[in-house]
Amino acid sequence: MIEKIKEAFEFIRNKSDFKPEFGIVLGTGLGGLVEELQISERLSYEEIPHFPLSTVEFHSGELLFGILGEKKVVVMHGRFHYYEGYNMEEVTFGIRVMKLLGIEKLFVSNAAGGLNPDYSLSDLMIIEDHINLLPENPLRGQNIHELGDRFPDMSEPYDLVLIDQAKKIVKEEDIPCQSGVYTAVQGPNLETKAEYKFLRIIGSDAVGMSTIPENIVARHMGLPCFAVSVITDMCIPETLEKADIQKIIGAAKKAEPGMTKLISRLINIQ
Predict the structure, then answer these.
(1) What is the DSSP string of 58-85?
(2) Is the CB of residue 115 less than 8 Å from the CB of residue 206?
């Protein structure tokens, strides 16, 4: 795999000498941050050797290089999910390439279902910890010592300094925001009432189908990681309504300005 990562890196370097300081992964309905980006280079995933292609209709498929505020960033505008049929090596391929490109910290966003009854639709949730219920681990198999240790520590999966800074920003900006535990499941189906109840019992505040694989490989490579969810539907068993994808996208859009402000400010104080 390391040879594939290096081939993708070399291809990108031949296209651009832009050296990003930070990496960003944008989740469902959260493309508004791109409008704040002064783009200097745009590469389609199709162009980049070994890069997967996003098959989700509301995900773009571009690697964007540019300036956010005063910081140099590379943005994955469209991510990959295990439920699309990719293995975890493919799901996390872009994170490893961004590391070789020189990023110092990783910022990840996603859309998630709210399990905590104190949450509201379109709230942000700063991820403080996670529960991994995905059936495959991106570090499974022979360890690539060039990237990290065989048994990376996960006692603090999300950077505590970044979490503290983010909490101050949302308070200053009056952005509706919670903090809690994110659980990743395989998908693509949503969960049953009994499954939502189970997830809440084991300590989940929100549930989604991404982010944790990216976090695991980031920690494996020593990259500090910050992640935030947008609560796009409420998954309380007693009041559960049938999922409506348009309402989910609408809830993400409503939260987009707050998400954009949070990530932009957080990156620019690093």
Answers:
(1) T---EEEEEEETTEEEEEEES---GGGT
(2) yes
